[in-house]
Structures are given as structure tokens and as C-alpha cells.
Amino acid sequence: MTKAYDKVLFEILPKKLFEIGLLSWGKVLNFFPVGGERECQPSRFTVARAGICLNQYDCRQRDGRAAGDCAHGLGVCCIFEVTCGGVVQNNLTYFTSPGFPELWGGQKECAITIEKTHAGITQLKIDFVHFTIGQPNRTTGECDEDAMFLGEGENRFVICGQNHGQHLYYTFPSNSESREEEELGGARGMRLVIRSRGEGPRLWLLRLALLPLAHAAPHGCLQYHTAVNGTIKTFNYASNGRHLSRQRYRVCVRRGAGACAVRYWPCGPRAFRIADPGLSYTDMMQQVQLMPAVADDEMLEEGSGRDPNMAPVVESSAPSPGLWDRSSSYISGVCDPHHCGDSFCPGHEDQCWVETAVAPFAVAVNFGPPTPKGDPEDNIGACLRYMLLPCDT
């Protein structure tokens, strides 16, 4: 008798709850939240390299796809993938070229819309897992055929060519529309467009992560490296590449606990080529757009406040072309801070590095408007390695 009563109760109760409005298909009381929007790894092969740990119902409601269990079997690792025409409405989504991993030869626009999941989102981080589209104009460096456009107006960022392994942090404009904490969808978002005009196959897989202020990069940093050592490359740095025009951004390196300086050095003998060899300093000044300094008080803003390991300093307001290391003092093997030409350290190739204790650690990249130059091989861009130096050295 008890079992029969229990069966009737459990069959009737959900129906009554829906009838009185406590539950609905559009909004369900979630008594068993799983994962807290934590990242998880799929347990089987998928295009997406990571997902979000959700309960199965939420995954299905958000048009995700379960790819294994998470949270000790209480939830599923929910992956989100979009391609042309898709809308990003989750904190972690993968954007693929049509038919990925097959090469795509279409000649059209492939656009997606990126919407904030809630009002606290401040930045979009893009990791270029794979990215190959058409090269820029080999003479001027302009992306005049294939190109990726992110954002609009003065905040628009444009790249093309080969950019595997690169990343960037894009700050949403302060006047962009946002949604309430629980709301999903329905608001105007930001567009990411990949334009295909040239010949040749294309392939891309981009990891798109929406970041709250607590996990955002410092203000003014398009790229932000958090490891104690790593590699910094200009966009489209490749054997058959050419540095892009209209590039003006900062690459920042987090100053970890116990680190008091940073060292930069070229990745190889021919890893620094950002102007025709033999140009005079005056010629290079005319070819490279100048960039004014950014106030350190602005740049130090990371997450919910200043990085406790960053020591605020006053940056010189002197403009500088090319790659600039923010250093005011040099030791063995270093060179002029106005880094242009075909060498990172002219005359010191056998012992070439730059060290600086001036914080915050950052490299500014300045490539001006499209300008006809000579051999593209002499304008391939720059590849630098960096290493944080402990205070006791």
C-alpha cells in the first residue's frame, strides 16, 4: 500500500507544481546545481577542447552537448560550438570554420554574435587554437582580402594570416548593452566577422571565454602572459608571413611573487625583422606610427584591483616606434629601446637580451598605416622570449 501511495504522489506532484506555476519549462528551480560554471574536460573526442560542468537539463536548455560526466557523476561536461551565423551565449564557446577540421574554401563573410551572459562580464578572451586565413598584402601589410574583424568603430581590431597559439583580451565597450544576472539571450551583442575574399583554404578554431572583472587582463593589455617564461610574437609571425599594418597594442607580462625583473631576447638569429635593413632612425620614425604612453594607474587595473605584485612607476611620456621594452637602464648585451630594423641588438648578436626592473612589465607594438616596403622577408615581425628574474639575482 505504501509503495502504491508513493507512486501516485510522485506522479501527481510534478503535475500540480507545473499547474500552479512553481515550475515551468522556461524556468526550472534548480535544487541540484552542479559545477558552478566550472571548466571541465570532455571524456571523449570533440572539437571543443573544454566545456562547462552543468546539470544535464541546463546543458540541453542552452543547446549544449554533453561530452562525459563531471562533478563525480552529478553533472555533464557540456560543450558549446558555433560556426557561421551562430550566437555565443555561454561563458566558454568554440568558434569553428565551416566543416572543421576540413579546410574551407568559401568566399563570403562568416559572422557570429557574442552576447554577455550577465552584466559583470567585462572582457572577451580569444585563444587561437588554429587560425589560418589569407595573408596580408605582402607590400603594405594591410589585410585587404581575408581578415578577422572584432568589434566596431574605434575599438575594432583586425588581423589576418597565420596566428596559431596567439591570444588576445578584448574589453567590451562600456556603452554596450548587457543583461541581468539570470537572463540569457535577447540583447544586441558584439559581432566577430571573418571575411573571405582571397584564394586558398582556410581553417580556424577559436576558444571564446567571457571574463568577469576578477579574471580580466590589466587595462590596456591586448595580450597578457601569466607564466614565468614564455614567447611573445607579433600577429602573423610565420616563415611566409609579414607583420600587419595598423597594429598598436601592448603585450603585458604578469610580475609574479618573488620576481623583480624580466629578460627579453629574440627567438633566433632572424627572429626580429620589422623594417628594411639599413634604414636610418629618421626613416624608421617616418614609417612607424608613434604611440603615446598610457598612464600606469590605468594599466595596473587587473581583476578587482591592482596586482599586489606590481609596483607602480611613472612611465616616460616620450613616444617610441616599433617594439619598446619600457626599460630605463641596461646591462650586458642590450641596445637602444627604439627597436626597429633587422636586429634586436645591433652589434651585439652574440649576447643579445634586454633586462628591466621597471614595472609593470610590458612591450608596446607599433606598426603604422599601410606603407609600401621592400622585401617582405625583412618585415616578418618579431618573436621574443621572456623570463621573469627572481629578486635574489
What is the topology?
Blueprint: H1 2-19, E1 39-40, E2 51-54, H2 56-61, E3 65-70, E4 75-79, E5 81-82, E6 87-88, E7 92-96, E8 109-114, E9 121-132, E10 147-150, E11 157-159, E12 167-171, E13 190-195, E14 203-212, E15 223-225, E16 229-233, E17 247-253, E18 259-266, E19 272-273, H3 281-287, H4 296-299, E20 301-302, E21 305-306, E22 322-324, E23 354-356, E24 361-367, E25 381-390
Parallel strand pairs: 5-7, 6-8, 15-17
Antiparallel strand pairs: 1-2, 2-4, 3-4, 7-14, 8-13, 9-12, 9-14, 10-11, 10-13, 16-25, 17-24, 18-23, 18-25, 19-25, 20-21, 22-24
Explain this structure:
By secondary structure, this protein is mainly beta. It folds into 3 domains: 33-79, no CATH class; 81-179 and 187-216, Spermadhesin, CUB domain (Jelly Rolls, Sandwich), CATH 2.60.120; 218-393, Spermadhesin, CUB domain (Jelly Rolls). 9% of the residues lie in helices and 32% in strands. It has 4 helices and 25 strands. The chain has helices at 2-19, 56-61, 281-287, 296-299, and strands spanning 39-40, 51-54, 65-70, 75-79, 81-82, 87-88, 92-96, 109-114, 121-132, 147-150, 157-159, 167-171, 190-195, 203-212, 223-225, 229-233, 247-253, 259-266, 272-273, 301-302, 305-306, 322-324, 354-356, 361-367, 381-390. The strands form 6 sheets. The chain has a 5-stranded mixed β-sheet, with no helix packed on it.
Quick description:
The protein is mostly beta strands and 393 residues long. The protein has helices at 2-19, 56-61, 281-287, 296-299; strands at residues 39-40, 51-54, 65-70, 75-79, 81-82, 87-88, 92-96, 109-114, 121-132, 147-150, 157-159, 167-171, 190-195, 203-212, 223-225, 229-233, 247-253, 259-266, 272-273, 301-302, 305-306, 322-324, 354-356, 361-367, 381-390. It has 3 domains: 33-79, no CATH class; 81-179 and 187-216, Jelly Rolls, CATH 2.60.120; 218-393, Sandwich (Jelly Rolls).
